[in-house]
Design a protein that fits this description.
Elements: E1 2-4, E2 6-8, E3 11-13, E4 18-23, E5 28-34, H1 38-57, H2 60-76, H3 78-89, H4 101-117, E6 123-127, E7 131-139, E8 142-146, H5 152-165, E9 169-173, H6 180-190, E10 198-200, H7 206-212, E11 219-223, H8 226-237, E12 242-246, E13 251-255, H9 261-273, E14 283-289, H10 293-306, H11 325-340, E15 344-347, E16 362-365, H12 372-375, E17 382-388, H13 391-399, E18 403-404, E19 406-410, H14 414-421, E20 428-431, E21 446-447, E22 450-451, H15 456-461, E23 464-472
The structure holds NADPH dihydro-nicotinamide-adenine-dinucleotide phosphate.
Residues 146-150, 173, 175-176, 204-205, 208-209, 212, 223-225, 228, 231-232, 247-248, 280, 327, 330, 377, 379 line the site of NADPH dihydro-nicotinamide-adenine-dinucleotide phosphate.
């Protein structure tokens, strides 16, 4: 079994203790990582702090070239990284609608290349005979990145690349469920970046909290659940450490009564079920007008029954297993509550009888707001379809949720849908699509889905502080 060391100051580090990484398609261990502790967090932060002065003084052009070199290294190792991502997350190599490890690694390359090219302009506020006033963007120092298990490599890239591009150094802590692709990324980066610029520590509980509370960390960037985001913010508050938090979503999609059901159903299905629903901005509450309700429920059920579920390494697999046992337990618990709330299971509803954490793609009709499956983020292959009659009322129902990551409106009239989409309380609103992200458009949540944005110049700026420079003449 392959074993992966931590990387601190450009060198592999062992702790003397390891933990197993499970392939969710088999339930068996396929790799081992180091069980780091607080002493490793201290070493990694010290290395990143020591590397910061020289790294922050490199020119834009130097950092741009090095980040392009990282993209090149990911590209050169794409088949291996795809296999790792599939084995640690369970997601297929290809996947439903092409959303699988190929997309995760391909997206990682694209995001890295795009981020390398970004420039932080100097803003000239005043320039006259009295004075020149410039606004500069400066790197912050050591950035702590804490990542989840659903898109481990891509989210690591979303954290690490803009942090480095802006001139910061980084300590990353991947989820213990899916550390392997991050370990491989940092291994590759150790041949490209100066020592200490990118460090990785693996471990459980104490590692993450030590990192977010560390006085030499200037910024925490976190993607994961809302309760953990709140704990991280509380722990960062001790040092007034800045946070970008990309947290859970319980995204509503509103289907207007003018859609062509045949055309729209596969898109709705993919928006809800890609990566088994384990995507923060997947479609998780589907509101359908009463006039098309039964037709859409039947179309979704048909798609759920026919989608190919299996081991992600096998060609043709569209959906893999749920990523871990704890998440499978959450899904089973929500299924039980949906049954007792009177949900009509038009597809799925139980575990698949095989090794690993497989669950049938599940579509539940006849539930409404106020039931757990509608109100809570399931983060699994299950979606409730909720009936509505009045558009004004459905907008209000969609907004009546603590989360506000994404939302969508589906219609054959895009202008009408766009006007309604703007009334959704969420950071990203889509028309006739859901969850589509791109490296140049900001992405982030409102309400309890987080704070701050990622991607593009808006995201890059979050890894900087402002310095105003006034030159009196
Ligand atoms: P968490 O949000 O709990 O964990 C995500 C990351 O945070 C992991 O690396 C975890 O590592 C770390 N972490 C946990 N507690 C702390 C802490 N106090 N300080 C610093 N780091 C910490 O996600 P889970 O894996 O437990 O999944 C739970 C739920 O989160 C899911 O059911 C799902 O609903 C949601 N989720 C949402 C995601 C999203 O993209 N929005 C992604 C993944 C999950 P460790 O446990 O070792 O501390």
């Amino acid at each position: 079994m392959q074993e992966f060391d931590m990387y601190i100051n450009g060198k592999p580090v062992q702790s003397g203790k390891t933990f197993d990484v499970i392939n969710p398609a088999t339930g068996e261990a396929f790799a081992r990582c180091q069980l780091g502790d607080v002493s490793h967090v201290d070493q990694a932060v010290a290395a990143a702090k020591a590397a910061f002065p020289a790294w922050s003084r490199t020119t834009d052009e130097e950092r741009k070239q090095l980040i392009h070199a990282l993209a090149g290294a990911i590209e050169a190792n794409m088949p291996e990284l795809m296999q790792i991502v599939t084995m640690e997350t369970g997601k297929p190599m290809g996947g439903l609608n092409g959303i699988g490890s190929g997309m995760e690694v391909g997206g990682s390359i694209a995001w890295t290349q795009y981020t390398a090219e970004l420039q932080l302009p100097v803003d000239v506020i005043q320039d006259n005979e009295v004075a020149r006033v410039e606004v500069h963007r400066k790197p912050l120092g050591v950035v702590a990145s804490i990542t989840p298990w659903n898109w481990p490599l891509m989210i690591a890239i979303w954290h690490v690349m803009p942090a480095l591009r802006a001139g910061n150094t980084v300590v990353i802590k991947p989820s213990p469920y899916t550390p392997v692709s991050t370990m491989r990324l940092v291994q590759l980066a150790s041949e490209i970046l100066p020592p200490g610029v990118l460090n990785v520590v693996t471990g459980e509980g104490e590692v993450g909290s030590a990192l977010t509370a560390h006085p030499d960390v200037q910024k925490v960037t976190f993607t994961g659940s809302t309760p953990t985001g709140k704990r991280i913010m509380a722990s960062a508050a001790g040092n007034l450490t800045r946070c970008t938090l990309e947290l859970g979503g319980n995204d509503a999609g509103i289907v207007l009564p003018d859609v062509d059901v045949k055309e729209v159903a596969p898109k709705l299905f993919a928006a809800a079920f890609h990566n088994n629903g384990q995507t923060c901005a997947a479609l998780k509450r589907m509101y359908v007008h009463e006039s098309q309700y039964e037709e859409i429920c039947a179309a979704m059920a048909e798609l759920a029954k026919n989608v190919v579920v299996g081991d992600g390494l096998e060609e043709g697999t569209e959906l893999g297993p749920i990523q871990n046992q704890a998440q499978l337990d959450i899904v089973e618990d929500l299924v039980a509550s949906a049954r007792s709330d009177g949900g009509r299971f038009v597809a799925g509803g139980k575990r698949i009888d095989r090794a690993g954490y497989f669950f049938e793609p599940t579509v539940v009709a006849d539930l409404t707001d106020g039931t757990r499956l509608v109100d809570e983020e399931p983060f699994g292959p299950i979606v409730p379809i909720i009936k509505y009659t009045d558009i004004e009322e459905v907008i209000e129902r969609a907004n009546r949720n603590d989360q506000g990551l994404g939302g969508s409106v589906w219609s054959s009239d895009p202008a009408k849908a766009a006007a309604l989409a703007q009334r959704l309380e969420c950071g990203s609103a889509w028309v006739n699509d859901h969850g589509a992200l791109q490296p140049d458009a900001p992405f982030g949540g409102v309400k309890q889905s987080g704070m701050g944005v990622e991607f593009g110049l808006y995201g890059l700026e979050e890894f900087t502080s402002i310095q105003t420079l006034k030159i009196t003449k």
